[in-house]
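Hello support,

Our group uses your service weekly, and this is the first time we've seen a run hang past the timeout. The protein is Na(+)-translocating NADH-quinone reductase subunit D. I'm not sure whether the cause is the sequence or the server load. Input pasted verbatim:
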Amino acid sequence: MAQETKNRPEQIAEVDKESKKDAMILFLSDSEEKEHFLSRANRKLLSDPLNDDNPITVQVLGICSALAITVQLEPAIVMAIAVTAVMAFSNMIISALRNLIPNRIRIIVQLVVVASLVALVDQVLRAYAYDVSKQLSVFIGLIITNCIVMGRLEAFALGNGVYKSFLDGIGNAAGYGLILIIVAFFRELLGAGKLFGYEILGHKGATLAESTGLYALGYENNGLMLLSPMALIVVGIIIWVQRSRNRKLIEA
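Update from on-call engineer: The timeout came from a worker crash unrelated to the input. Re-ran successfully.
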């Protein structure tokens, strides 16, 4: 009896430890609790996708939307925000449920979570930015099958805590959105002489005398920039510049 009484505190401590481990589904793990919220590792989750591990220029994912919705800057920004919201919250949800999801149906669960968030984002856009929603058309719905979203759920959210998964979602969505915005900036500026629909390079009149800004000097918009192949060329230029500055990204 004395021996059982002596061992009881150790048994209770062991049970508490196991209970705490199981309870980490919705909270931080022990290692994450000891790590500062803005530690170097957490900051890398946000910064690496912007450069060394960019989803588009390094991982070569999400190219289709980069070609299709970057004719104008506004829809590119809206698309970037939409993907950020979907990735951040889907990563959090899958990470929170990772210990409850049977391995055989994990892809189905991921698709259900992402599809639900995409439907919510689509309804918000229809309510508050209907014109942009029409411009984006089916590409909002195609976020469901975006390689970046599904890839991060499989590669990161299923094996890490909620907070880290949230940062990973934000970081990769930001890296994706950065490329969209850069491509859209140059395509709209050089292809239409506008940004957000406002004339930046001047007004193009019927004659040089009626034109202002660069158009008065004989400048002409490059109509090729409005075609989808030019988006691929701009992405290629970004990849070239990135690898010129960071030689370790060049494959042997």
